[in-house]
Design brief:
By secondary structure, the chain is of the alpha+beta class. The chain contains 2 helices and 10 strands, in the order αββββββββββα. Pfam families: PEP-CTERM.
């Protein structure tokens, strides 16, 4: 009899748990946005409407390097009155166009103000995207914004030309000095 009561209780509990509606976080990500890189810099960001408590996002910002390798630096910020409103940025990473992780960002601060930074040296020619991830921590609206900077990396031929130029300048200076002494 005791065994039968346990079986009935387990069946009732299992049935009740199957009928319950579990609250799952919704994905509120925006589609991939192309960065408008002008003079090797670009601004990016996203905004989210209210009533998205516990929903998550992974927004992507794409760009291409088409001429010479570039160093890459990025920063993203979100701020609110306190840590329990708006959003929480949980990650920022740089990926190749094929989806291979190149480097992850570094969290500079968290709480009312979230700040993440990221840097990558000598990105080769190709397509890339920056991914910013996070979670809405309240029912209020939220947004984040950031900036990327690209700095061309001189190619080895450039260094060779610079050294050759310095050699010519040194040769001419030495020749002038010798002519003055004679």
């Amino acid at each position: 009899m005791k065994h039968m009561k346990s079986l009935i209780a387990a069946a009732v509990l299992a049935t009740a748990s199957l009928g319950s509606t579990a609250a799952f976080a919704a994905d509120i990500s925006h589609g991939t946005q192309a960065l408008s890189v002008i003079d090797n810099s670009a601004n990016f960001g996203s905004s989210f409407v209210q009533n998205n408590l516990n929903n998550t996002f992974m927004d992507k910002f794409s760009f291409s390097i088409t001429r010479v390798p570039h160093d890459f630096d990025a920063i993203v910020t979100s701020f609110t009155r306190n840590a329990t409103t708006g959003m929480d940025i949980t990650n920022m990473s740089l990926f190749s166009g094929a989806g291979t992780l190149i480097t992850a960002g570094f969290q500079e601060s968290t709480g009312a103000t979230d700040v993440w930074s990221l840097r990558a040296d000598s990105l080769g020619l190709g397509n890339y995207y920056l991914q910013v991830s996070g979670k809405m921590v309240s029912g209020t609206a939220g947004s984040f914004g950031g900036t990327v900077m690209l700095a061309p990396v001189p190619e080895p031929e450039t260094y060779g030309m610079m050294l050759a130029g310095l050699g010519v300048v040194g040769f001419l200076a030495r020749r002038r000095k010798a002519a003055k002494q004679a």
